[in-house]
Design a protein that fits this description.
Keywords: Membrane, Transmembrane, Transmembrane helix. By secondary structure, this protein is α+β, with helices and mostly antiparallel strands. It is 63% helix and 15% strand. The strands form 2 sheets. It has a two-stranded antiparallel sheet with strand order 1-2. The radius of gyration is 24 Å and the shape is rod-shaped. It starts with a helix and ends with a helix. The model has no long low-confidence stretch (mean pLDDT 88).
Amino acid sequence: MNIEVYILGTLSFAVMGALLYIYGYRRSYKMPQELQKQIAIKLEKKAMSFITKNAQGVTAKSIANEIKDVKVGSHFQGYKFSVKDSLVTAQAVLDRLLAANKIKKVIDGKIVKYYPISDEEEK
């Protein structure tokens, strides 16, 4: 084997190693943001399905019980997001759904209930 092949092989190995390092670094940098988006979407879907199933209205506490076990990510990725404080998370999800005009908030004395907005009510 001549010296040119040896040098070329070593350089190509170093370049490929650098490219793989950059790819892994960028992926690990973007992973938390992607998982935050995934868990937000999953929480909204689960909350909306729970609200639409219960036509009599739901409270923030009942939604907190429903979403307490939501998790995204895997052990292979190295990141895993889950709900730690379910009541605070439920309130944040309800605020997002209220802002998106998907649910309505009805205060009955001291009890606050949330109802889905039907297609007729949107118009």
